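Known limitations

Files may contain more than one protein. Parsers should not assume a single record per file. Below, a two-record file is shown to illustrate correct handling: read the sequence, read the token line, then continue until end of file.
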Amino acid sequence: MCGIVGYAGRRNAADIILAGLKRMEYRGYDSAGMALCATGDESLRLIRRAGKIANLEAALGAAPAATKTATLGIGHTRWATHGQPTEANAHPHLSRSGQFAIVHNGIIDNYLQLREKLTAQGYVFRSETDSEVIAHLVEECYDGNLRNAVALATEKLEGTYGIAVISSLHPDQIVAVRKGSPIAVGICNGETIIASDASAIINYTNQVIFLDDDDILCATGNAVEITSLKNTPVSRKPTLIDWDAGSIEKGGYDHFMLKEIFEQPDSIANALRGRLQPKDGTAKLSGMHMDAAEMARIDRISIAACGTSYYAGMVGKYFFEDIASIPTDVQQAADFRDRNPIILRDTCMLAISQSGETADTLAAVREAARKGASVLAICNVVGSTIAREAGRGVYLHAGPEIGVASTKAFTCQVTVMAMMAIIMGRTRRLSQHDGQAMIEAMATLPVLCSRVLEQNDAIRKLAERYADKNDFFYIGRGYMFPVAMEGALKLKEISYIHAEGYHAAELKHGPIALLSEDVPVVAAVPDIPGREKTIGNMQECRARKSPVLAIATEGDEAITAHCNDVIRIPRCPAFLAPIPVVIAEQLFAYHVANLRGCPIDQPRNLAKSVTVE
């Protein structure tokens, strides 16, 4: 969830690190810093600031000119776990001598024991973080070889980490190690760039090596060596990043989130491209690596995910049961692992994660594999840990998602699961004729999305009527129930408005007590099964003076008698309706947050990739 950048080469390290941190500010923006090694310095130069990276940039501009001569350095942008977002708690952290600096993503579970031991040995701690123990451990273990010192230090750590280390005693060398938190290495000519996200590297190369757990990297500008912690050489193949730096620019939009909402016709088209097979009434997802016989043996699907991906999984449950006739359960990924889940023979575990690095989902993947389940992953990031450990699954091809609040990843996850369900359904009771109709409908998804986006201005005007409210309910039935949950999540994430998503039938079992003229209700009520009963629930809300904003199908004029305002979506089959409805919800949440002056791309307390448990 935090951002790491490191550089070794011949250019100004500070400029390259700063540019990389800006690319990754969506991963953490409580504080930022860098440590630089300038030629002739006996100790490292440390520059840190609380707050946004702009504060660090200003401090760097006022730093001594010698800072610009450094050709080695590491930087970090933080999402606070241990300790307040202050300068003292910002990374990098220095050792006692000032000769070793570390940046760390993850959580060290045994840091209190290590801190107590190091304090007894005379080490003085200057921060409240768990990370600072690593700097002191590296110094304690140092015997002239930086790589060995890092290896020995990490053997004492319990938890998850991606760590990068430099030392003024080795002014051309970076050492990095990973366990559960990503580290990527850019393959360049005469320089090495490492980062926790390929977005910091893509300006310099599209050839990236992703470290595996317990890999340790020792790099200079001219050489990269990867070994195990036991110093056994390992080989890691480079991955080709199939997007460019322009994909992570705003492209004229005010916010990344708005840009990514508007990218959804293209991102869904990319998720569908080459995969639909209309003639046979099915799709082809080669990454599944399952033949028809293996799919036919699946007697249960268990979905594990967190946050927005969890709500996508809830939509997937409807797909797999309604289309493929496979009993399906959806579990929050942490609960999947913590509850010691029952995995029966011929269970397929489906792990969903935009980043492919979500710590709880990764733990669920490992637990499912231990219990003998077949594991499939749905990820957006090529080379991510979940994608590699699952061994088979499907990439979304949605392109990089920078806005912390997920948008295009959700709709692509739903799109991919619809294709999966059709493929599995064709091994069971889904006929070729019915499969053809569903595949033909899926091919229209980009157009359906575009038609919702055409209403952007109208939705913004509607948002003006509701932007001053501080409590919302979202309701829906069937396919619209998880969509209501996701709509509420979007609003609360970026506008800081209290919003709750409920099954429409559940509203009267308690939450209805909270309804009033100051509590609007957003009702997902397209013309699909469940519409009539949801209208009844809308009437119950209006009877208690709650304004009702309906998201309804074009041409459904009768709905206006049951609500205060309407957002229209194009008519489509029930199984596709979640996608246009959720896009309408995304636009509504965006405009409400923008009208309230909220920092939409970097909402407080949130990070894009949650790599801690």
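...continuing to the second record:
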Amino acid sequence: MPRNPSTDAIVFLTMRRMRTPLIVLILVYCFSTLVMMQVPGLDDAGNPYYLGFLDAAYFVAILQTTIGLGEVPYRFTDAQRLAVYLLLVPNVVAWLYSFATLLSLFLDAQFQAVLHHSRFRRKVNRIREPFYIVCGFGSTGSMTVSGLLARGLQAVVIEKEDEKVRRMALVEEYSHVPALIGPARDRNMLELAGLENDNCMGVIATTNDDHINLTIAITVKLLRPGLVVIARSETQRVCANMASFETDHVVDPYRIFSERFELALSSPTKYLVQDWLISVPGTRLREVLKPPTGHWIVCGGGRFGSRIIEQLQNADLPFTVVDVHPDRLTEVENSVLGRGTEASTLCEAGVETAAGIVAATGDDIDNLSIIMTAHQLNSRLFTIARQETQENDALFDASETQLIARRSHIVTRRILLLVTTPLLQSFLQHLIRSDSGFAKRVASKLERVLDNRSPVIWVTDLSDEIAANIRYALTKTNSVRLEDITLSSRTEMKQPLPCVCLSLERGAQRVFLPGADTELHEGDRLLFAGRDDARQQMSWTLQDTHALLTNITGKELPRGSLWRWLSER
């Protein structure tokens, strides 16, 4: 276990601040003890008596702490009481001085930070499961942590704003998540968060600052080159920079949205299947969405708008750009100088005959204004809007915009896709590269089992205990097929489970949409999409050899090895 430097810092700060008070307290204590030993007293018989060291030290201790248990071992003489009276003030002052200094130390911001680092490091070291370091706990970071926890993965958070960290402790979902206040780009912060721990699976940079995310990616790749780094970036220059030193995954929300927009233009079926598979499980399935191929208006030619313009150019669709920055319009053939929130500007851009409009400015209210004004002028418009702030979800939903580019949602979905179901990412890439016939087959299979709700995605790994059950089944039968694990083992009719096997991975080989008669081998990894009850029943079948053998043979076999042995004979 790595050494915790915060412990050394606590000791150093305590000794540095308490050095003078402790010296004063010890000197006053020793001087008072010596004085009390030199002042003569009388015992019960009236004989002269001097306090011993232990009695004197004991009395000075109760004097300093103002406990005052009494005169020991005999009643004091007037001389002794006069000495006590003279020693009272310096002892109490020395004690209060030490206590006040100690109290101020605990209230010191630097000491509080060191204590927080020490507690944080202990919590990180107590994590035994695989975990990811999430840098930034804004809208994207909080949704990412929620997604990781929901999928059984642990997270450690670094956030520079202490208010966000304090709010985490008030939410039950995050109360056990270690959170560190500090700049995530600082190497020391990353090391405190467990960067060097063996069970650290990777670092996820989700801050709103591309340069900070770039710094985090560089730092991690230099300190732990083999660790997975997923970094968010919205600037093409920074994206290219990250890719140059082999950042594992660069998540550009505007690039992702523009590519999905191009997919909706070129192949609505592929877009539909992709949307079903990446949507939140249980939400209503989106219907076929086909953006029109007429004239488009793009309001805002910045980071988001430029990517939409690029896709419109690739699709050979006519468009007009509206922007308040003249330098963005110099290379655009059809352009209008303006914000796009005014009816006159939109009319000049041709909104009355346009097929679609994209509100791509960096201001949510401006984008909502553009959509509302455009609807007043042309109710048939296909509308796309960019949303920057999560608090405006209700407003954009009420605007009835067909497509909304929500940065936080886009980034979170992609991160969770890369972290939890990498097989789905490879399937989606194959879906985009394949012909439309493949997408139609996938859509048809999913429609039959999903009951108009987005599917749960899971990976079944035929290893460990499941592999042992597969081996046992092979000793009793010729083969185990995909159909055998996708049948309900809890009903007599053996109905197919409401799920679809999207891909089978066997070593370096991948089979997409494998058939029901595909033979399964030990070590196979299967990607499924379907309802959650199908996942639970499949897990039961694979972990229960009796249920598995019943599905394979089609006969209700007796439970127990003795009865099974008798039935075989």
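Parsers that stop after the first record will miss the second one. For reference, the second record is described as follows. The mean pLDDT is 89.
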